[in-house]
Amino acid sequence: MTPSLTHASAEPFWTGDVSSMPACPTMSADVTCDLAIVGGGFTGLWSALKARERSPGARIVVLEGGTCGQAASGRTGGFCAPSISHGVGNALDRHPREAGTLIRLGRENLVEYQRDLEHYEMDAGFELCGKLNVASTPWQAEGLKAMARNYARFGIDCTLLSGAALKEKLDSPAYSAGLFEPNYALIHPARTVSELRRVCIELGIAIFENSKVTGLSRDGSEIALETSEARVRAGKVVLATNAAVPLLKRLSMAFIPIYDYSLVTQPLTDAQWASIGWTGSYGIADCGNQFHYFRKTPDGRMLWAGYDAIYHYGSSRDAANLQRAETFERLAEQFKAAFPTLADVNFSHAWGGIIDTSARTTFFAGRAYGGQVAYAMGFTGQGVSASRFAALAMLDLLDGRDTERTRLKMLRRAPVPFPPEPVRSLAVRLAQKGLEIEDRTGRRPAFLRMLDALGIGFAS
Predict the structure, then answer these.
(1) Residue 434 and residue 453: Cα distance in Å, rounded?
(2) Whether pTM exceeds 0.90
(3) Whole-angstrom distance, CA of residue 434 vs CA of residue 93
(4) What is the pLDDT of residues 43-66, one digit of tens each?
């Protein structure tokens, strides 16, 4: 093992950087409620909070299989995007007829996200600090210019950077061009979950942890949810299960679980930060298909993550997948190449997280059981802010409302299903190989061009 990883903790940095939350009870007795929410991550907790705003007197229950935020929500990098469509370029490529609407709604959602945090006095570590996109090849630099042109079409503020101007934001031999967008936020993932959970409890929402839902069925005019010790009967149900095995079998091929990995350094000194020109608090991501994303933590460490996106045969969700020595070693070597002045820095944390990846890289939503059940999933690594929007869309669907959200084709269009094994694994490998070739040569292979024509993508 690389010496810099010798003492790295397998737990996410975020969970150790927040006070432990008092445990919620396990579901042990049958309950009847107006709304049951399955999943206690970002999507489930936003759904509970927004449902309470709409129905102050409703009986709302959240059922979480483990502890709130222990899965994807607590393992993310905390990049809080002004987008619900995986970025402006993705909206234009995959949803051209409603791209303008998607882009506007994404930007409005971030404003409202911040407003909600302030209204409920949630200390979520939210900071509207901007994001620096960086390029390492000439074709990636051209991609940044195209991004700037797209941003200009929609009045989005951004600045192209190169040379000395780029070095003032980030001084690294790995990157030759950049684009800075100020309207981008970061959050503290574990603190955000903790605060959402706190507010939900204060608003009278019952949260049950370690209460995994194992079955969903109709029970007369209500929906029944089974746990190991009790049954919940609800008038309406929100499924916010992210990358877990879906309770609705028809969704089992709508997304695949992809594993993403993160390292966090020991705290860096002011001199070390200055040596790489990174004196602001903005987040950074490079432009590769196999891309890195990196940011500062509140106590002055660097999170360095991404690049590998690992699919395990049969859509395995085994807990062992959260650790992958090969990927941690690769990330550590890439860190040294990007930041030679930090080559002797050690890593304090190394962990993995699971991503619910859809074939079109954006989340989808829908209804089941005659409109009494709503679901949203397939966020493809972009759910920090989009989870709030998805929560509102699901509540609209359950209420039978005709809104701008429910009219979006991006939400209503059924996702392209992934094929069964062994074709699924083969297709993923071919796509990943093609993405690696494009990163290396700037040329998009025929297999990827075919997927593009079918409106299918692969990203994280």
Answers:
(1) 15
(2) yes
(3) 19
(4) 999 999 999 999 999 999 999 999
